[in-house]
Amino acid sequence: MRTDLSDVTRRTKHGRPVHHWRRDVVELAALFTAVAVADAVANMVGHGPDGPVLLVMSAVVLLATVGFHTWWARRHNHAPPAAHDTGARPPADAVQAGPATPSPAAPGAPQATTLWRMRTTVRDEPGSLAALCVVLAERGVDILSLQAHPLADGTVDEFLLRAPAELSGTDITRSIARAGGTGTWIERADAHDLVDAPTRILGLATRTALDAAELPLALRHLLGRCTIRSLPAAARSVARGDEAAAPEGAPGDGVLDGTVLRLNGPEGEVITVERPYLPFTPTEFARARALVELDTRLGPRIPHSQDVLTLPEGNSITVRRADTADVESAKAMHERCSPRTLDLRYHGPVRDADRYLHHLLSPRFGRTLAVRTASGRIVGLGHLLWDGDETEVALLVEDDWQRRGIGGQLLGRLVTMAVEAGCESVYAVTQASNTGMVAAMRGLGLPLDYQIEEGTLVITARLDATPVSSRLPYDSTRHRDDRVGHRGQAER
């Protein structure tokens, strides 16, 4: 409330009012002036020829004024508000502050909505983003999150949207194009995308810090649908003998080339990330490079959890993660395996089997489970390998330990890892005569696709058919003491 300082009486520190003589003089002068004016008017009315007439006319004007005020007050009621009305009424054309009155809802369940992830490029000028927000609001689309990636010639805006279910991705794209968005890309999202970007990136960094095999998966979750390939340093040095076939490396800080990223891996390898549908932004490149640098600084590492299983004859075996420190033990198992077993696993000359072990056991290229006896000897290996945007599974069990259920246990754990990593499918490459591997894949109880070409069998298991909990009874994160039964599960 505004207060005029002239209406405020100043007081001393003891509370007594302070009087000013100037104010008293002004009041006396006003009083003398009023008396002089009143005397002049009284003399003019009392001693003038028209004095009585002026008095009667003044009385009539006063009575008319009173009558008009009474009529106006009755016409516009100013009575106090009713008992249930505790506040002032807003004007008819105004909107009262506070929560809006909800419109009558349609009968039945609430309106169905769909989550979308969308990227579009806009001009780097004021009002460009506002135009996008306006057209989305007109279609009833709610913006849940927004990230801006500045470029040299514009800005890439990444949205997480909740749209009415009847609104298709094409409808949203057309609306964005009318508002000035170009190069728009859109795909369905799920509840996992509701996590804000900093939290999601910190979670990926944590997964990478705990397990070196998580780096390709973290990059895939960070950058969306993409193909990730890793070329070891040894393979690049061999390829340099043929300049035409020599792959392009990456400088110290990596390379950002449109839809392709090239980064130097922890062991000298070149990690190539390709995404054909949308160019990478400098922000994405910086995030990917930071993940690779974190992995490089931490060095090789794997979780130390293990499972203890009991075979039907009473022997106990241990299943745990393996890495390059287990290369010598794996070579010793190769020496105990028959040429037939090695041929079914590696599909090539048996003498070359040892050459693959360092790559297979490296956590940079996938995950490996090793089966050990009570004496510590490796008798089985199971590999989950990141192959671009696909995932391969492979098994090798020593001859004397086959047909005891070991292969089925390994395969089940590998598939569970693939599900946890977000893989949509896994495939196994073997020979059509390898009935043990076929039986192990069928034992998963998942939808399978078979392809046979010149004696080579490719079996693909789709992992998106049912939830993980109802699909597989395996959990590699806990210590367990299980009984491994035959139940038709056979190994190589």
Features:
Aminopeptidase; 14 helices; rod-shaped; Alpha-Beta Plaits; disordered N terminus
| Sheet with the most strands, sense and barrel status | 6 strands, mixed
Q: What is the 3D form?
A: rod-shaped
**Structural class based on helices, strands and sheet pairing:** alpha+beta
* Total number of helices: 14
Low-pLDDT ranges: 1-15, 78-105, 238-247, 466-492
CATH top level of the largest domain is Alpha Beta
Structure overview:
It is built from 14 helices and 17 strands. It is an alpha+beta fold. Helix 5 (197-210) packs antiparallel against helix 6 (215-223), helix 5 (197-210) runs parallel beside helix 8 and helix 6 (215-223) runs antiparallel to helix 8 (282-298). The protein has helices spanning 21-47, 51-75, 128-138, 169-178, 197-210, 215-223, 233-239, 282-298, 327-336, 339-346, 357-361, 406-420, 435-442, 468-471; strands at residues 113-122, 142-151, 154-164, 182-188, 227-231, 255-257, 260-264, 270-274, 306-310, 316-322, 366-372, 378-387, 390-397, 425-431, 448-453, 456-462, 481-483. The relative contact order is 0.07. It has three domains: 113-193, Alpha-Beta Plaits (2-Layer Sandwich); 197-298; 306-483, 3-Layer(aba) Sandwich (Aminopeptidase). The strands form four sheets. Strands 13-12-11-10-9-17 form a six-stranded mixed beta sheet, with helices on both faces. The chain has a four-stranded antiparallel beta sheet with strand order 2-3-1-4, with helices on one face. It has a four-stranded antiparallel beta sheet with strand order 5-8-7-6. A hairpin with a 5-residue loop joins strand 7 (260-264) and strand 8 (270-274).
